[in-house]
Amino acid sequence: MYRRARRRPAWGDDMTTPLLEASGFRKSFDGVPALKLGQFRLEPGSVHALCGGNGAGKSTFLKILMGIHHRDAGTLLRNGSEVVFDNPSQALAHGISIIEQELSPVPAMTVAENIYLGREPVGLFGRIAFRAMNSRAQALLDGFQFGIRADSLMMDLTVAQTQLVEIAKALSYDAEVIIMDEPTSALGEAEADQLFAAIATLKARGKGVIYVSHRLSEIFGVCDSYTVFRDGAFVETGTLADIDKDHLIQLVVGRPLTEEFIKENTPQARELLSVAGLSADRGVQDVSFALHEGEILALYGLMGSGRTEIFDRLFGLSAESAGTVTIDGRPAQIATPRQAIDAGLAYVTEDRKRSGLVLTGDVRENLCLATLDRMSAGPVMNARAEGRAAARMIETLNIRTASDRLNVAHLSGGNQQKVVLGKWFLTEPRILLLDEPTRGVDVGAKREIYRVMSDFARAGGAVIMVSSETDEVLGMADRVVVMRDGRVAGELDRATMSAEKLLHLAA
Amino acid sequence: MEDQTKTAAQQRRMIPARIGRDAQRYGILIALALLCIVLSIVSENFLTSRNIINVLRQTSINGILAIGMTFVILTRGIDLSVGSVVALVGVVSASFATTSAAGFIPGAPYMPLIPIAVGLITGTAMGALSGVAVARFAVPAFVATLGMLSAARGLTLIYSGGRPVPALTDGYRWIGTGDVAGIPVPIILFALVFALSHFVLTRTRFGRHVYAVGGNPHAAKVSGLPVRAIRFSVYAISGALAGIAGMILAARTGSALPQAGVAYELDAIAAVVIGGTSLAGGVGRVTGTVIGALLIGVMNNGLDLLGVESYYQQVIKGALIVAAVMLDRSRKTED
Ligand SMILES: Nc1ncnc2c1ncn2[C@@H]1O[C@H](COP(=O)(O)OP(=O)(O)OP(=O)(O)O)[C@@H](O)[C@H]1O
Ligand SMILES: [Mg+2]
Fold it and tell me: What is the ipTM, given to two decimal places?
């Protein structure tokens, strides 16, 4: 009944049956609607971008497709016939699989064992037929030219390779619909290319891919059609060839948004932080650089080039080793995060679930976590002060949450990131260490984060930003230090930096 | 028209959602109330003020232990040593309060304040030792406190020579048998410990720290929280409260028994878990723990009143604990 009432997409009149057709999806959590009108149509042999801001309901929609959440209303047609999934294994049996953002491989098992986990081919007396399993897995991997050996251990693979294995696993179930929810958020640009090649193969084989990402260049690179959700409701669907970036941004944000980057800071002469001959974990050696008041400095490099290790060392999270750190002209001894915070540092880590948020806590508790001593009289907390601080950050950073008492685990990815940022702004730092600050953050919110960075530097602070996105580095940084294998490979200033030079120095 | 159906549907969905939320908050309270109603129907002795005071007094020892355990479990830890610490504190503090000719400590008996201080220090020290092992040397809490379970029991036997410390002074016995305005002292202590702990966990900075460390120790560390000191403190708190419980027990019995408190940690953990505190850390409340302890207390009392054999009582209690955790898990996976 719902389906009839909805307007079919313009290109819905042709003869092919869509792999998947969803209409009128609705879902509320505790009476708050997360998805009001989810509508989607996936054709065979297409890579379909599902676009929308943080909290637009994309993940909720996909979780309904996978049977993880149960929809309140709506119809789902799989190859033209109606289906309802109560759990993910039913979705899997219908050829729908998801590559989740948080991958959960069994690290001490081989690639083949992971792919056939729970479905191992068995021989006599229930013995696992390892040889058959390995060769089947190898054939699957080779079909994509993944260049991964089926008998290597999962823990020896990179994040990107782990994702490729996950794709192979999906295909071993004969999946026709493959959902990827922000698959590149844990990858650098170089690593992502392998994933894109795999997606192209999937497409050539007539599979349908639903692709979620906040990186627009990526969407235009790998996808052919798009569907946009805004505030939980379907907005538009079409072919990407017919639109441009600005149009897509406008659909996602709901208003025209021209400039992507905001940069109004000017570096001053005064040195805020300088690092000389620093070494840190994982082979980081002899790193030296300076950071000036009002400056945005980028640390660029491939995955594993030691950028995060430098941050960990600066923030007192890893053991002190060789090298000196000078803050404001005075040598700084930073052995614990507390000392780092007192020295005016703030650190937005790259993995917000692991080291940024207390997921059992609510928004307010998380925002106030690093400044509890400023919100208490003696040992007793001042609930009013906490509430005020939280409200201020929710407003400044435009955090979308039903209330400051909502559990952070229920916030969308981008809003979680803003909560982490807000926690650190409350410490009133002078030096911000940002590790991939816009990971998983939508275009609108990215701009807000850029604005915050720019304002922060303009007001006399300084920012060091680790980013794997070349565009972001070029758009925001005054200077960039390029890392390779734990050492400084070069330094470029705004006048001389270019994408080619960055990649050349990093690789 | 569509809007109307939508709001109606939404309202329909909101109501069960709210009931569900409230049920999970008040579930055990409802269970406790139901149990009390049933018991007052089947046994006329249940709802007498004497029996109620009796239940509360019996619950107070487990309740105090369970409150300490709540602190520990909130940080993802566990304290298996509380039963042994109860016994150790019992004999050590009692040895300062005995009139026995054997005269355990020269000059004993002392004024009650001395044995009480000694008991508190002993309990805190035992907890602190476990705390150092866990917080400083990263020994898993299960192992560290299992070691303390054994060591503290051994110390108890060594100190007392395996014999009870008898004939405690009236002043000391007052902790276990006295009353203020008709309310037994153990119940008053239980209430004070509850009120203070509730305040600490909900209103103080230390309370926030405890929840944060249990919820995500990494994030707590990055945010500059003294994670080690917090971990250490919760074991010291648990030890101190075990000390109070140990003294109440010795005072009530009239002599400190070296074999006292065996398996008390199980009831304490049970009360915490039934009270809804998550063993995964970061989630839970002492109010839940107190209700959990009362539930166990009322159940024991009820089964006694009904004349159920103690062997069966253990089986029923075990089933109740597992059922409570099953409920807890199922509502988590629903999320
Ligand atoms: N289990 C839940 N309980 C309560 N609210 C929820 C729950 N899951 C999601 N929400 C809310 O539903 C809305 C949509 O969230 P969803 O995760 O689908 O967004 P998204 O489009 O995937 O965003 P992002 O791009 O940031 O990942 C958000 O406002 C979120 O807070
Ligand atoms: Mg999402």
Answer: 0.82
